[in-house]
């Protein structure tokens, strides 16, 4: 429970800071510049995909090896991961850097921003790519050793700088590149924190590289590649509805959908906290006893189900009052129905994150990736007609039905895995 507590603090702290910082940033920057800053946040966040799931592969492999006869292989696993994420990060850097040579202000619909400021912003984002990719290796190692207190402290630092940094800078300058510089510098600092924590962790466990063991980069990529496929498809499920609404209905319909959607899915933080801790714990348990792993999983599944059910029911009935107080004159009655549809999906999506962690811990990320690709084609085939006919409400229904399907498919995988064993 201590690990869950620290993980919860690390994930919730940035949300609290954002709640206070975002309104002030919108006021100081204006909607257009704030939109560019929001895109920068999204790019840096999405940069986690660039490690091709190697960080998660490190967590799975090290959890499996630690305490066993092959524990001495762990340093070579880290070395292989560092090489893989290093090259992937450099590739990401080159791709993003290329964009800086072009004037893309027209593409993103920005007028109140100089080309120099935008180009420098893109260069800073490019620098963040290899830093984020390499950090994934060391964060994955720390998660394997359940160092969630330290990880949470680093996350809290990132959260403070991510939203607080641009806010402080906005009192002196409205330059987007200056604000993004604070984001990039915070990632560089966190990289060294993660690296130092990892080295201390291995040293404390008396696991030092001997030079005789080798671990293949290919083995990490084969696991991480499937994780990446899921990581690329999942954001599409989150954001595609907004683009469909903008293209088929209007920009205002995006707002009607996005506000209740973005607020309601924050409830998933509770499931993310549990699944992040569950992944290395179950990975380690599976290395010794599948029965023990299943027992741990079912225990957490029951607790998460009860807690999520309570939270979702509470939000279902309190959403109208909470959103009306928070939004004031911007509140719309459509928000209530959409929020209530989404919260049903949040319940199933929260449970799905835990089953997803179990399937990955068992070493089958390929199954979840194939499932997500299958869902992708179903999703895009039904999204267009439903959104065309029912607008924002249709988008909410489509998202909820998709996550229910995802949970059903994942639980079938869980049952199948245990029958095989």
Commentary on this structure:
This protein is mostly helical. It contains twelve helices and no strands. It has helices at 2-46, 54-65, 74-99, 115-144, 148-170, 176-204, 217-248, 251-264, 269-286, 290-327, 334-361, 365-420. Helix 9 runs parallel beside helix 11, helix 10 (290-327) runs antiparallel to helix 11 and helix 11 (334-361) packs across helix 12 (365-420). The longest helix has 56 residues, at 365-420. It is globular. The mean pLDDT is 78.
What's the gist of this structure?
This protein is mainly α and 421 residues long. Helices cover 83% and strands 0% of the residues.
Which structural class is indicated by helix and strand composition?
mainly alpha
Listing every helix as H and every strand as E from the N terminus to the C terminus, the arrangement reads: HHHHHHHHHHHH
Termini separation: 29 Å
What is the rounded Rg? Answer: 22 Å
**Taking all residues together, what is the mean pLDDT?**
78
